Amino acid sequence: MGESAQDSYQKRWGHLRKVLERQGPFGHPEFEPSPEILEFVMNGCKILVIGAGGLGCELLKDLALMGFKNIHVIDMDTIELSNLNRQFLFRRKDIGMSKAECAAAFINSRVHGCQVTPHYKRIQDFDESFYRQFHVIVCGLDSIVARRWINGMMISMLQYDDGVLDQSSLIPIVDGGTEGFKGNARVIMPGLTACIECTLDLYPPQITYPLCTIANTPRLPEHCIEYVKVVQWPKENPWGSNIDGDDPQHITWIYEKSAERALQFNITGLSYRLVQGVVKNIIPAVASTNAVIAAVCATEVFKLATSCCVPMNNYMVFNDVDGIYSYTYEAEKKSNCLACSQVPQTLEIKDPSKMKLKDLIQVLCESASFQMRNPGLTTYINGKNKTLYMSTIKSIEERTRDNLNKTLTDLGLSDNCEIMVADQTSPNTLILKLKYLIEDVNMD
Amino acid sequence: MSSPAPKSPEQSEKSKKYDRQLRLWGDHGQRFLENSKVCLINATALGTEILKSLVLPGIGSFTIIDGEKVTEEDIGSNFFLDNDSLGNSRAQAATMCLLELNPDVRGDYIDEFPENVMKQNQDFLKGFSVVIATALPEKFLIPLSKQLWDAGIPLFSCKSIGLLGYARLQVNEHTVIEVHPDNDNPDLRLDEPWPALKEHLESFDISKLDKKERSHVPALIILYYFMQKFRNLHDGALPTNRAEKDQLRNMIRACGNEEGLLEENFEEAIHYVNTCLSHSKISSQVQSILDDPKCLNLNQDSAPFWVMVSALRELVQTEGSLPVKGSLPDMAADTNSYITLQQIYQKRFNEQVETVQRRVSEILRNVNQSPDAITEDEIKLFCKHANELYIVRGTCIADEYQSSTLDISMYLDDPDSLMMYYVILRGLDRFLSEFNAYPGQFDDQVEPDVVKLKSTIGKLLAEWGCGQVLRDERVHEVCRYGGAEMHSISAILGGCVAHEVIKLITHQYKPLNNTFIFDAITSNSVTYRL
Ligand SMILES: [Zn+2]
């Protein structure tokens, strides 16, 4: 570096240098002020940002201006018009392009020396060896499934020596989420503090309307839309495909059919906007909340990387509907967490001769502690691997479909047997031990 | 098959672009936003972060006043200054970068120090919806505060120092129609039903319904039926305390069907006991607005809000209650029973809106305002949210700064109180005006500045009559920052302040009242009313 370049560097990062090169009473116990810390932030530290949407754009900006130069970003989405009210790295001309690539190019051109590497891919396209290179993972996702998956990945990378966690295998996760004017930010030390699965009950289940209501006694415009979506569309199938919420023709068709139905039942309040909202399950979003939550996350990344302060412990909720409110507390690690506890998981079954496989799958999908999406189940019977059910591969689904209506007893699953459950919510297979509460009585 | 001809309303580009926020503040909120003019004093990182979250959702226009030239340090912390702008006007460079964010927003700048702009043209700030000042020294903030207070223009004063953020809203008077409460109890009027509703409710005898009818009757009708039964047992009184409410619940619960089971709609009726027994009473908050001198003394300059409040007041005087909301929560029932009930509420609402509307027209005529000063949609919205009406009358920053007593002593007894940071930031303000530099700004002055800042703060506390002493470590921490502006802290505060500005412009949601402190060291925040 030339003398003037060195001088300009010293000045440009003067703000950060004050905090990193001076002793502070609130620093982490290990904090030793020195120019080497900024040197590490800039050249040693590698950050992964997952998501280049509302939070992701903010995160990239914030991290770049907090001195981080080596940033990777993953996002499989492309830019849409409705992103532009908050995803400020994108312009109208960028519509249709990769979010990750556009965002990276913008940051790299605006912040001198910053190198954001984009990955126009899914998180599932990468394995442990990719994730292992990072010092901190920051998530700005709108999908719970993706959050759970990355959480599972970080936990599977932990190494234990005689039951003691090898700290060098730990990669902290900083996670943010927003909805309208509410948001949360948290710091997860996988294996040490509460993980995503530990606090799964914080995510509310999606609103669903009972079929009998939407079919027989609709009262709300939402009931009419839902009816068209789940009954009329499959029946009439106007384009011979599934509903594509981004296809205006599809939305228009649903809007018109719903409007007809609403008129028939004297239901008022149906609008095109509402139809879009229900069909696409749209979550309202504004620039300001994303800005706040992403910046809280970036601040925590900075603390983790520099030790200039003790990181947040460990969960912050934010809401600016009525004044500005935030609350920070310690979310508790669940002692039998599915993902991070290393405790074998058991599932209590009342009566295996009555419980059908589909009931078991329903439990896995609906209970607050599992919340799976489309679990695939296999087991070992007499030392042989047997697939009980799998919906994700068509040929296997057809072959195993009949099992759904068989009881656990019929399937030959005995007390204390283990089933292996694979689901999109985790990169790891969950081993579940079935515990029968009553003796498996032979009816013969 | 051929695709059906599109008959649905063609969505405009704008409503597609703003879709995710229109679902929150509506098209009417967006119109307010698009007509607003925001002024930013000093394009610091904090300043541009605030403007960013206002330009994106589409304010009408912004003006930046800033006489500084872009420095290396600015570029290192401010995203809206690019590399090539080094040495150029900061106001201009920031304006250019911010304008790229949204082609619907206009923006201009004045490359001059704010104090000069104010000196040259006293009226310059008139016409702005909100003024935001960042990093403005005390000696300029105080006159600005006075000027805007008198002009009735809201002012935000904000600072981002190290890991601390501070925002203070000064607003003379601000009215809110849509508060968007977190839990909005349904407005059902079962305690005092109007004749049409009463007639409908009393046309049902729950004890005589057959099994199918029972399962289709809306919970409201069930609840009303048992409320009447309860009244018969209690000299016409409704339950007021928990025991009585339980008694009413038990009466409903005891009314199982042939199999002794309770249907979903009966369960819902039990659930409504808690929230829906009395709702006709007017809250003291709304009553005080109805009794406000501004409502009683209307004139040609009265804001639409006060004209509508005045019309509402007359409706309340004749009918004894606020207009009914006109909406029903969903409840288990067959379509017909539900829609019939819904229409009764809706009809009542429409009648009451019409009454208010007639009164509004008369009032406008009487005070010589244009008959289209208030639209029908505005009146509808106003009536729908009549029970949420909210008003803030704030305090003036100049008064706070010039007051000899500041009532903060009670906070300072708690050594962990974030009020300590308020005190330190006020000390920092004074330090800045005395020494023309931030404490700790120069590497070799950190320790001496700690001593100086402590003495400045000590004097301030003594002036305010506070006997407490600040912990040294907090003063030391602030000197460590040396006035550094850390981008992520400015971004946190920027997002917060931007949304507060949107609240002021749209007259939706309750704004900050009035001092917000964010402590990123512990990730905690607090609001004080000063
Ligand atoms: Zn866990």
Descriptors for this entry?
heterodimer, A: 444 residues, alpha/beta, eight-stranded mixed β-sheet, five-stranded mixed β-sheet, 14 helices, 15 strands, B: 530 residues, Rossmann fold, two-stranded antiparallel ribbon, 9% strand, disordered N terminus, binds zinc ion
Structure class of chain B: alpha/beta
Largest sheet of chain A: 8 strands, mixed
Number of strands of chain B: 10
Identify the bound ligands. Answer: zinc ion
| Distance linking N and C termini of chain A | 86 Å
Strand order of the largest sheet of chain A: 3-2-1-4-7-8-9-10
CATH superfamily of the largest domain in chain B: NAD(P)-binding Rossmann-like Domain
Query: Unreliable segments of chain A (pLDDT under 50, ≥5 consecutive)?
Result: none
CATH domain class name of the largest domain in chain B:
Alpha Beta
Q: Indicate the overall shape of chain A.
A: globular
- The proportion of residues forming helix of chain B, as a percent range, comes to 40-55%
Function (chain A): Catalytic subunit of the dimeric E1 enzyme, which activates NEDD8.
Domain E2 binding (chain A): 349-437
EC number (chain A): 6.2.1.64
Family (chain A): Belongs to the ubiquitin-activating E1 family. UBA3 subfamily.
